Amino acid sequence: MAAASAESPPPSSRRGTRLAIATQRRAWTRRVDTWDRHNDAGMAKVAAAAIEAVALRPGLVCVDLGCGGGRLALELARRGATVVGVDVSAAMVERMESLARTEGLEQVRGVVSPIEELRLDPQSVDVVISNYALHHLLDADKGRVVRAAYDWLRPGGQFINADMMLGRGTTAQDRQVIASKVRVMAKKGLPGLWRIAKNAGRYLLRLRERPITPEAWSRLLVEAGFTEVTATNVVAEANVVRGVKPPH
Ligand SMILES: C[S@@+](CC[C@H](N)C(=O)[O-])C[C@H]1O[C@@H](n2cnc3c(N)ncnc32)[C@H](O)[C@@H]1O
């Protein structure tokens, strides 16, 4: 098991990061009972694509960043991996651990920590994976986390980020993604229109949703030293970006 010495990590010294962490903790703790039900076909496809991207063999040590109720962590454990699920919300971690107990998945462990403050031993894990969580981080923290993940991984280790990935609406590709999301939500009537308004505010102001493009993620991986970097579109705005830490 990875030595995750994150139980009482030093709080971030950056005010913006501390604020972003507190906002996410509040927002996601409120959603603990409803998020699992947000299990639409698109989300299932993205999670499946993230799992498929892992060159998995029993006994691999995986870290799931922003694990929520354990969508990825539990599936990886069912396939024989040892998993550390990390989430800023204690309620989410409890949910994951309780589901793991129900299934008898003893090799799942939760750590309550902001991703930005997570400390793991160098070269202690085989896979760092995340589903729909890293777009919540400030841009500077995205880069820091990719560099930290590079240090945590053993040579040959894999970094896999499945996430909402788009820019700020300046390219035709961004506009196409935004238009398709708006069309889907608009079909849901008044609740859908309310979601459009809420999401537009968050996206434009980058308050809680801070996606960047697959190209920008790929660049962060290359700059950190990852090789074999690929970006694969799954559905609409969702992409899987994967890189490998070079073997010795
Ligand atoms: C959209 S949910 C995805 C949950 C899970 N990965 C899944 O696929 O169902 C985002 C998760 O990221 C967590 N999260 C958001 N910001 C975080 C941060 N800075 N540090 C740790 N977890 C964070 C939230 O608490 C939430 O559980």
Structural overview:
This protein is an alpha/beta fold. The protein folds into 2 domains: 15-165 and 211-244, Vaccinia Virus protein VP39 (Rossmann fold, 3-Layer(aba) Sandwich); 168-208, no CATH class. Helices cover 45% and strands 21% of the residues. It has 9 helices and 7 strands. α3 (41-53) crosses α4. The mean pLDDT is 89. Bound molecules: S-adenosylmethionine (SAM). S-adenosylmethionine (SAM) binds next to α1 and α4.
Keywords:
single chain; 9 helices; globular; binds S-adenosylmethionine; 248 residues; alpha/beta; Rossmann fold; seven-stranded mixed sheet; 2 domains
Helix count? 9
Ligands in the structure?
S-adenosylmethionine
Per CATH, the class of the largest domain reads Alpha Beta
Total domain modules: 2
Q: Which outline best applies? A: globular
Helix content: 40-55%
* Strand/helix succession: HHHEHEHEEHEHHHEE
- Sheet with the most strands: spatial strand order: 3-2-1-4-5-7-6
Helix/strand/pairing category: alpha/beta
On the 0-100 scale, what is the average pLDDT? 89
What value does the Rg take, in angstroms? 17 Å
* Cα-to-Cα separation, first versus last residue: 22 Å
The CATH superfamily of the largest domain appears as Vaccinia Virus protein VP39
Low-confidence blocks of residues: none
| Secondary structure tally: strands | 7
Q: The CATH topology of the largest domain, please?
A: Rossmann fold
What is the strand content? 15-25%
Biggest β-sheet strands, sense, barrel = 7 strands, mixed
CATH architecture of the largest domain: 3-Layer(aba) Sandwich
